[in-house]
TrEMBL record:
Enzyme class: transferase
Short name of any one Pfam family annotated for the protein: Methyltransf_33
Residue stretches in coiled coil: none
Keyword Transferase: yes
Name under which the protein is recorded: L-histidine N(Alpha)-methyltransferase
Length: 327
């Protein structure tokens, strides 16, 4: 890394650390106390999430892979009917294991050769830039490291092509329904008429199946939640005693909200960044929402945020859907 690049990188990291500290301290002043799941993903959290995706109970990844493995050709054909040439942008690209199938199909059909993965993690972007062109010869990877909306705007300045923006894996579920409307509205504002989005939604199903996916017997999801307390200890000079918090996932089949909490097992005081935070016995800390949708709710979200539903792709069990919307 050149000196100027290293300086810019360090400044971004310092800014992210300050925001993390501010969000943690402010969230723990709220009633009920709150920590934000976007902070789950440090190096350990990334590794734990990879393990979650392989848990027998966590059906979401397998369902979406089923769609992309089996229906990529159909998806690309549908996109091509609405946008003859386009660039693919992915929000939260991760290891691109899902977009891989679409990219392969797009290259085969000659509809695009440019992929803009957007991710908050610089490591992910560097890895994708290095590894993908070897796996998919002819593909141009233009990684964008930063916040989704800012980077989407940056992509808009690099290319005048129509866009297909992917937001996969039910990441939309990590917003409350009201936040999802705000997010999709902002997304719509960053796009031009005719651009398309492909969004993955986890569908409502047997409540126990959903709850089990967030309470795997191997305890990986529990470790994933507790890792945020460990991260606070590591990065914000905290002294959480992890053994004194319990993982408590819930699912409300009426609202479709699957929420996870950490419960303080006893009255305790924790030091974070020089401040004392007090927890009562059995006090919950709200950690994450993973909202489940039905088709009516998905269509309502599209219309409230200014998109037009084009096509729906389901896995064989109809547990998950990737939806194609157009601006
Ligand atoms: C990333 N996100 C879609 C996952 C989900 O299902 O809400 C995160 C996760 N949390 C617990 N398990 C998986």
């Amino acid at each position: 890394m050149r000196a100027a690049q290293a300086f810019q990188h360090n400044t971004i990291v310092e800014k992210q650390q300050l925001t993390f500290e501010k969000d943690v301290l402010a969230g723990l002043q709220l009633q009920p106390k709150r920590l934000y799941s976007k902070y789950f993903y440090d190096a350990k959290g990334d590794a734990l999430f990879q393990q979650i995706m392989h848990c027998p109970e966590y059906y979401l990844t397998r369902c979406e892979m089923d769609i992309l493995r089996g229906q990529s050709e159909k998806i690309v054909q549908a996109v091509r009917r609405h946008a003859p040439g386009f660039d693919l942008v992915e929000l939260g690209a991760g290891d691109a294991s899902k977009s891989f199938f679409l990219l392969k199909e797009m290259l085969r059909m000659g509809v695009t050769d440019t992929y803009f993965p957007i991710d908050i993690s610089p490591n992910i972007i560097t890895q994708l830039q290095q590894s993908l062109p070897a796996k998919l010869p002819g593909l141009q990877v233009q990684g964008l490291n930063g916040e989704y909306m800012e980077m989407l705007q940056a992509a808009g300045q690099i290319t005048a092509q129509q866009k297909l923006v992917m937001f996969m894996g039910s990441s939309i579920g990590n917003f409350t329904p009201a936040e999802a409307v705000q997010f999709c509205t902002r997304l719509r504002q960053q796009l031009r008429p005719g651009d398309l989005v492909l969004i993955g939604f986890d569908l409502r199903k047997n409540p126990q199946t959903i709850l089990d996916a967030y309470n795997d017997k191997g305890g990986i999801t529990r470790a994933f939640n507790l890792n945020l307390l460990e991260r606070i200890n590591r990065e914000l000079d905290g002294n959480f005693d992890i053994s004194q918090f319990e993982h408590y996932p819930t699912y409300d089949p009426v609202s479709g909200a699957c929420k996870s909490f950490l419960i303080s097992k006893r009255e305790q005081a924790v030091e974070i960044a020089g401040q004392t935070v007090r927890f009562g016995a059995n006090e919950p800390v709200y950690m994450e929402i993973s909202q489940k949708y039905d088709m009516e709710e998905i269509n309502e979200l599209a219309s409230r945020s200014g998109f037009r539903p084009v096509e729906f792709f389901y896995d064989s069990k109809r547990w998950f859907t990737d939806v194609l919307w157009q601006c």
